[in-house]
Amino acid sequence: MVVEMDSDNTVIIGIDEAGRGPLIGDMVVSGVVARESVLKELIGKGLADSKQLTPSDRYRIFLEALSKGVVVVSIYIPPWRIDRENLNDLELKAMENILRILVKIVKPQPNTQVKIYVDEVKGRSSLLDNYSKKLLKNQVEFKMEAKADVLYSIVSLASIFAKVFRDVNLNALRKLVGDFGSGYPVDPQTIEWFKNTYRENKPPPVFLRRSWSNLKNLAPKWYQEKGREGKPGYKSLFDFAKR
What's the predicted TM-score (pTM) here? Predict the structure, then answer.
């Protein structure tokens, strides 16, 4: 893992997502700003890619990062939007909005160098690079790479925030609808949940990604083709959990 070197006039930003692939729930995209000294401290306390950590370790580092002044902005992309729009385009737009908000919060000075590290979104690297340069008037170093969440500590931290925020919503949802496991179609517990929940004459849950092809086997009447009308009345799982 690389610790991104900074100085008094350098800002380090990392962006990653959680929940691209499952059948259930929002995708969460998170961006963080942290200094090199904070990243080194967090690495000493176990900072790594979120997939390599247990839920309790992710939450521990999440709290530690907040206590050290890490700035985070997260955007939730609900299932109905995923069902209607291109996932990479949705993620790109979320990342653009996150960068715009972070820049407003951090307010880098004209002599400040901004380093941005992003986990790969296929086919969108040049678009986000151009957006960041337009936003920051070329005072930016931009890298979008595959496995950036493993390679760069700032992206590892973003992945932890995204995963923790998504897990909080899923845990609330499980209390309402039962334990569906991870929500991935290969998870035996998720498959079992569908067997117990699916009825042909029952409307599909609002937290379900209906355009995933795996649904054709698990709950065929709930499947819909990509781009059809979704459930715009619900903004995210959190909105559903409050009902």
Answer: 0.89
